[in-house]
Write a structure and sequence with these properties.
The chain has 209 residues and is mainly alpha-helical. The chain folds into two domains: 78 residues; 113 residues, Alpha Horseshoe (Leucine-rich Repeat Variant), CATH 1.25.10. Helices cover 73% and strands 0% of the residues. The chain is built from 13 helices and no strands. InterPro entries: ARM-like (IPR011989), ARM-type_fold (IPR016024). It comes from candidate division WOR-1 bacterium RIFOXYC2_FULL_41_25.
Length: 209
């Protein structure tokens, strides 16, 4: 059965499981799967697109070198109507940013839109992850990313943990002003009743020193 046929017949959690399984095959050496998946991320069936995006994302998590050269081909999929495809591809851009910064930065405007819109928890989460990876590339990128994360901290309180993690990735390239502002956010996190947020805030404070 071809990859297209497999993805057409799978939905929901089954599709997610299939995507992970196929990604493992790629990581074991079957690179033809990832080549086809990259093409299918733009297919005219949402189940196929999302299934292909799952393969791409899972490969990027463990071996972004297999995906990074193809970011330009994946860029149009950030306009997919279903959020699943968008959040997996924006995450792929973040995971691959260090390896292909020239193309990774081209997703920045779309990421800003995702943060500003009522995108939902998963798309917000992966977008913020992308912004953290992008901002960590250089002080110039940090300057561009910081205001977006700063606004997100105020407007999307449910993403506080992910935002603090993004700031932590960028800490080494932040200038003095950004570090001072970030320390205030970290101190707010220290007051949280959630242990996970408090833990991220503690790690961030250490990185800022």
């Amino acid at each position: 059965m071809s990859l297209l046929e497999q993805l057409k017949n799978n939905k929901g959690t089954v599709s997610s499981s299939l995507g992970k399984s196929l990604a493992e095959q790629v990581l074991k050496g079957d690179v033809n799967i990832i080549k086809e998946a990259i093409q299918l991320v733009l297919y005219d069936d949402k189940n196929v697109r999302a299934g292909a995006a799952k393969i791409v994302e899972q490969v990027a998590v463990k071996n972004p070198e297999l995906v990074a050269p193809n970011l330009k081909e994946l860029l149009p999929s950030l306009n997919s109507p279903e959020p699943q495809t968008r959040w997996m591809i924006i995450n792929t851009f973040g995971l691959s940013a260090k390896l292909n910064p020239v193309v990774a930065v081209k997703a920045f405007d779309k990421a800003k839109q995702f943060v500003e819109q009522n995108s939902g928890a998963c798309l917000w989460d992966r977008t913020i992850c992308y912004l953290g990876y992008l901002g960590a590339l250089s002080s110039k990128q940090a300057l561009a990313v910081f205001p977006v994360l700063e606004q997100a901290f105020k407007s999307i309180p449910g993403q506080t943990k992910t935002i603090l993690e993004a700031f932590a990735r960028m800490a080494e390239v932040m200038d003095r002003t950004m570090k001072q502002k970030t320390l205030k956010f970290a101190n707010e996190g220290l007051k949280s009743g959630k242990a996970s947020i408090k833990g991220c805030a503690q790690k961030l404070v250490k990185k800022l020193k």
